[in-house]
Amino acid sequence: MKNFNYVIKDEVGIHARPAGILVKEAKKYQSKIVIVKDGKKAEATKLMALMGLGVKCGDEVTVEVSGEDEDTASQEIKAFFENNL
Amino acid sequence: MDYRKVAEQIYEKVGKKENLVSAAHCATRLRLVIADNNKCDSKAVEEIEGVKGVFFASGQLQIILGTGTVNKVYDEFLQVSGLSAATKAEVKQAAAAQQNVFKRAIKTLGDIFVPIIPAIVASGFLMGIMEALNFMVNNGFVALDTSSSIFVFANLFSNVAYVFLPILIAYSAAKAFGGNPYLGAVIGMLMIHPNLQNAWTVATEGVQVKQSVWFGLYEIDLIGYQGHVIPVIIAVWVMCFIEKKLHKIVPEMFDLFVTPLVSVFVTGYLTYSVIGPLFVVVENGIIDGIQWLIALPLGIGSFIMGAFYAPTVVAGIHHMYTIIDVGQLAKYGVTYWLPLASAANLAQGAATLAVAVKTKNARTKSMALPSAFSAFMGITEPAIFGVNMRYFKPFVCGCIGGACGALFASITQLGASGTGVTGLFGILLCLNMPVQYILMMTISIGVSFALTWMFGYKDEEAQASSASENSVEGEYPVIEETAQENVEKVIFAPIQGNVIPRENIPDETFASGVLGDGVGIEPETGEVVAPFDGEISSVTETRHAIGITGPGGMELLIHVGVDTVKMNGDGFTVLVSEGDKVKAGQKLMTFDISKIKAAGYSTTSAVLLTNSDDYQSCNVVKTGKSKHMEKIITVE
User: Helices (H), strands (E): how many in chain A?
Assistant: First the structure.
C-alpha cells in the first residue's frame, strides 16, 4: 500500500464538483483508493461517501492506494490532487 | 489481469455450458442466466481474481467486475463458453427490446406534444368553430357580419397555432432531445419559411418551384412542410445530434459561433434535400395506396381506411387528403372520402371523451375534455397526441370506431357535396343524406366510446404507464416499500419546478454527467422532499446538498442551486441528518429562492443518480413543469 498526506487548497473542499472529478480519476485505476479524514474513511470511487467526509479547505487528508498499479496510481493521484484540489 | 483466465474460471465454477442459459453485461456486472443455481459455486466465483462481488438477483447471477473490465471478460467468456448472441433467451430479449423502441417512440411523441397541447387545444377548438361558421355563412345557413372585428380576428387566431405548428413542435422536440430549443425553433421555421410554397396548396395548385440540390445531382420540390409532424421531429433530432457532437469537438472559443451555424446549416440542407423529399415520396406512395384501397368494393377499403386514418394523422399525411376530396368531387360530384375522415375524427374524439368521463384525475380530465370537443369539430391533434396516443389503447379503440363508421358510410353511399369541414358540422356537407350522416356519427362515436370505456382506459394503468399526475397539492402517491431488485426503480421529483435535461444544467460538471446521470430542476418552491423511500447518506455542512440512498442501491444527489456551496448555508435549512430513514415525499430541506438569486447564483438544482454507471439505463420520463413527487426518472 502507498499513501500520502495532502492539505486541501480548493476553496470549497471536496464538494460536488471536485468530488466528481476525483471519482472519475479514481475509476481509472485498478487499485483501491481510500481517502481518510479524522479517522473517517471513504472510497474515492464513491461520490456520496466522499462528500460525506465533509472535507473543507485547509483540512488534511490521507490518501491510501492499494492494488496492482499502486505505484503509478499513487503518483498520478498525487499529481491530480496538487492540480485540482 | 488476464481476462481469458478470469472468464475460464467463471465458466468452470458456474457449471459450464450445460448450466448456462445466456450471458449479458452491464456497465459493471457480468449477468448470467443459470439453469440450476445449485450447480453453480458462487462462493468459488467470488474468490476469482478480479471479481468484486457475486449475488443472485432478478433471476440472474450477477458478477461484479467493474467498468472497463467487465466487457473484456464478457468477450472472453463468450469465446470460452461458446455462447453466441443468438441463444433463445437473447432472441426473446431482442424481441422485448424491439417493443420498447416502439413504446419509446410513442413516449417521445408524448413528451414533445404534451407541453404544446395548451396552444393547440385553444386554437383547434376555435378553428373547428370558425370553419363551420365560415361554411355556414358562405352557403347562406346563417347571416353573420363577417366584417366585424371579432369575426376577422377570430379567423386569424383560430389557425395560427396550426400554421406555425412545426415551430412549436421543433422547439419542444429540441428540448426533449436535449438540444438548444431556440435552434430547434429555427429548424421548424426553416421548414415553413414564407418564401416556400405552402404545402396545403400543392393539392390544388401543383408544385410551383423546383430546386436542384447536391450540385445538380437531383431536383427537389421547393415546398414548405405545413401540417407535418414526423419530418419536423426527425429534422430536429438530427440537429440535436449534430449540435451535441459539435459542442464536444469545437473549441469553446468558437463554440457559440460555429456550433449553431453548422448545426442549422447542415440540418437545414439535409432536411430540404433528403429528409423532406423522402417523406414526400413516402406520402405520395401512401396516397396512391389509399386511392386504390378506397376503390375496393363492399366497403372493405373504407373499413380499413377508417381504421388507418388516425395513424396517418400521426404521420402528418392528412394535409394531402384534399387531393382525394377534390379528385372525387370532380369524378362523382360528391366526395366519399370526407364522411370517412369524419368518422375517424369523431371516433378519436369519442375515445378521448371516454377517457375524460372515466378518469378521476383532475389533470387528465382537464386536458381530455377540450381535446375531445376539438376533435368533434374535426381538429384531432390535441386528442390524438395529448391523450389517445399516450395511453395508446384509446387510440386503438378510436381506430376501430372510425373503421365501423366508415364502413357504414360506404355501404350507404354517404357522400359529401364539398370539403373543408369534418366532424359534427360535416353534416352541413351532407344535407341530402342527413340521417345517414347522423347514423354514421352515432356508430363511430358509440363504438369508440364503448370500447374505450370498457377496455381502453383505467386510471391505475394510465398512471403506471405515463408520468404520474396524481399529485394533487399536499397529497403524494404512496409507494410500496420493496426489497426486490427487479422492482421498478423510480425517482420522483424532489423539487417542484421546471424539469430540464441534465445537459442543460448551467454548470459544466453537472451537465457533463461526471457526477452521474439525472436532471436539473428550476425550482418554483423552496422545498425538497425525499424522491423515494431511503436513507440519508450525506448532508453537506453547507446544507445545500443531500445524498440519499434508495431502492436497488440508487444513490441520489440533490444539489440545490449552482455554486451555492459558497453561500455557506445561508438560506438553507436541512430537516434530516445522516443515517435518517425517510419516506418518499417526506420534507428534507427548505431553501430561500430569493436569497440564492440575490447572491447571484443559479437556482437550477441538480438531481443526479451518482451511481448511474451501475445500471443499464437511467431514463428521464418527464421534463417541463412538475410538481413534487411526479415521476421524473426510471432506472433499469
Answer: 3, 4
Which structural domain range is residue A54 located in?
2-84
For chain A, the distance separating the N- and C-terminal CA atoms, rounded to the nearest angstrom, is: 22
Assess if residue B32 is contained within a domain: yes
Cβ proximity of B619 and B502 under 8 Å: no
Write the burial class of residue B344 (CB in 10 Å: 0-12 exposed, 13-18 middle, 19+ buried): buried
Q: Which of B85, B104, B122 is the last residue of a domain?
A: B85
What local confidence, expressed as pLDDT, does residue B469 receive? Answer: 36
Band the pLDDT of A41: cuts 50, 70, 90.
confident
CB B219: neighbour CB atoms within 10 A?
A: 12
Q: Would you call B545 and A15 a contact, using CB atoms and an 8 Å cutoff?
A: yes
Residue B218 has phi, psi (to 5 degrees) of: -155, 175
Q: Above 0.85 for ipTM, yes or no? A: no
What per-residue confidence (pLDDT) applies to B57? 63
Residues of B in contact with A25 (CB under 8 A): none
The H or E element containing residue B221 is strand B218-221
Scored b (16 or more CB within 10 A) or e, B392-412 reads bbbbbbbbbbbbbbbbbbbeb
- The whole-angstrom separation of Cα A37 and Cα A19 is 14
CATH for B11: 3.30.1360.60
- Taking only the tens place, the pLDDT of each residue in B159-193 is 888 788 889 999 999 988 888 999 999 999 999 99
pTM, full prediction: 0.48
Q: Which of B1, B509, B537 sits opposite A48 (nearest CB)?
A: B537
* CATH code, domain carrying A21: 3.30.1340.10
- B26 is an active site residue: yes
Q: pLDDT by residue (tens digit) across B278-303?
A: 887 887 788 788 878 877 777 788 88
Alpha-carbon distance B632 to B621, whole Å? 5
Q: Are A16 and B557 inside 8 Å of each other by CB?
A: yes
Assign residue B494 the CATH number of its domain: 2.70.70.10
What are B522-559's pLDDT values in tens digits?
A: 999 899 999 998 888 888 777 888 889 888 788 888 99
Cell of B608: 443526479
**What is the span of the domain harbouring residue B521?**
489-635
